[in-house]
Amino acid sequence: MQKIPVIYSDIFLTDYRTVDCESPDRVTEIYYDIKGMADFIEPEPCTDSDLRLCHTERIIELVRKSDAYNAASLAVGGAIKAAEVALATPSFALVRPPGHHAGRDFNGGFCFFNNMAIAMKRLLRDGKIERVLIIDIDLHYGNGTEDIVRGDKGISFWNVDGATRDEFFRDLEGAVRIASGFDIVGCSAGFDTYIKDWGGLLNTGDFRRVGAMIASSNRRFFSILEGGYYIPDLGINVRAYMEGIQEVM
Ligand SMILES: [Zn+2]
Question: Is 100 a catalytic residue?
Fold first, then answer.
């Protein structure tokens, strides 16, 4: 089996903790469960001009003063790296803090900067692609991403929704059906839809199916970790998702 490039740094274990559930242990658990199938790549922090692609000076300065800044700017750098790697091969950004609740001039929900939106805007700005699709499979609506990409003709956003497992997959199928029409697909990969997590929807095998479905929809594809708070099974769920991707690589 081909290994998957995984962007990771120990800096993501920084204990800036906003709330107890968004613990560094999330990343540790995932790291150990996926290390056999991963080619780890060390990210570099993003620049201020990267942050300005999506955020106001107010938000940038607010985060700069917080103890999460180093991890947050490196998470953005990791997302950018994952997007660039994905031009050649599918990749995964194992980053923390998550990003999809960070909007242009607001943040919250354990998010500081919008990793996904910045990564996509960088690819677009650098002229590497023209049309991108963001699929958000986290339990929670990607309100920050929606706020930033609204009105941007180069970026389409599909937030997968569903009160049941069947509804979730039906909605995901809709996203997958249009995905081949884009230059690249990015998945905001949250695992809090898990049956034992807050969402109570998907089992471990379902994450494998989700990974395979999205990966087979477009050969340029990357994922960025968002939520997922049931730590005992978080690693095996991410591994199942990555195995789904490997199946179709
Ligand atoms: Zn979530």
Answer: no
